[in-house]
Amino acid sequence: AGPDFNEHVLHKTILVGDSGVGKTSLLVQFDQGKFIPGSFSATVGIGFTVSTGQHCRLCTWIWDTAGQERFRSVTHAYYRDAQALLLLYDITNKASFDNIRAWLTEIHEYAQRDVVIMLLGNKADMSSERVIRSEDGETLAREYGVPFLETSAKTGMNVELAFLAIAKELKYRA
Ligand code: GDP
Ligand code: MG
Fold first, then answer.
1. What residues are paired with 14 via a beta bridge?
2. What is the pLDDT of residues 50-93, one digit of tens each?
3. Half-sphere exposure (CA, 13 Å, Cβ side) for 75?
4. Per the count of CB atoms within 10 A, which of 50, 103, 106, 148 is most buried?
5. Ligand 1 centroid vs 20 CA: distance in angstroms?
6. Contacts (Cβ under 8 Å, ≥6 apart) of 102
7. Where are the transmembrane segments (predicted)?
C-alpha cells in the first residue's frame, strides 16, 4: 500500500550531510521535480510542507540547513524535534562518505533515540567520477542498521522513493 494521503500528523524531516553533497538540490528535485543548479541557500532557515490542498501528499515538514554544515555548526536544536533524517554523502567525494560516521555520532548524541534514518549516496548520475562503490554504502548502512539508496538530485533517480520510504517508516511508527 502507498502512503496514506489523508494522514494529518505532521512530522519534521531534516537533511544532514557535508556541504556540497546535494541536500538542497535533492529537496528542490523532490519538491519541484527539477534540478536547479546553484539553488543552494534557497531554503535558508525555512522548512516547508509538500501538502497539496487539504490532503497531505507527504506528511512531513522537510528542513534544509542554511549551509551551517560547512562550519560543522549545525545546531543541536535542528536535530532535537526531528522524527526523520536523510543523511547524504556524495559518491564522488570520499571525505563526504568518511564523514558519515561523524554525522551519525552527532545524530546519536542529539537526535531523538527513535529517529528514522536513511542513508543516501547522492550524485549517482556522475558514474565516471564515482569513488564510493554502492557496496561501500550498503556495508556502512548495514553496520548502522539503516536503509540505503543511491540517488541523483540531477536525474531524479530514487528521490521520490527516498522521501516516500521515510514517510512510510514514519507512518508505521505513528
Ligand atoms: P548542499 O550543500 O548539500 O545543499 O548541496 P547542493 O544542493 O548545494 O549541491 C552542491 C552542488 O552539487 C551543486 O553544484 C549542485 O548543482 C550539485 N549537485 C547536487 N546534487 C547533484 C546530483 O545528484 N548530481 C549532480 N551531477 N550534481 C549534483
Ligand atoms: Mg544546501
1. 63, 85
2. 444 444 444 566 777 766 776 666 778 788 888 889 999 999 99
3. 8
4. 103
5. 6
6. none
7. none
Cβ atoms within 10 Å of 115's Cβ, excluding its own: 16
What spatial distance separates the first Cα and last Cα of the chain, rounded to whole Å?
Answer: 16
d(CA 118, CA 90): 14
Q: Which residue has the cell 527516498?
A: 162
Q: What is the pTM of this model?
A: 0.86
Q: Which residues of 17-55 are buried (b: 16+ CB within 10 A; e: fewer)?
A: bbebbbbbbbbbbbbeeebeeebbeebeeeeeebbeeee
Please report which confidence band the pLDDT of residue 40 belongs to, taking 50, 70 and 90 as the band edges: low
Residue 43 beta carbon below 6 angstroms from any ligand 1 atom: no
Question: Partners of 122 in the beta sheet?
Answer: 90
Q: Are the CB atoms for 146 and 104 separated by under 8 Å?
A: no
User: Hey, what's the torsion of the CAs at 141, 29, 25, 76, to 10 degrees?
Assistant: -60
Cα torsion through 142, 160, 4, 42, rounded to 10: 110
Q: In whole angstroms, what is the distance from residue 15 CA to residue 24 CA? A: 8
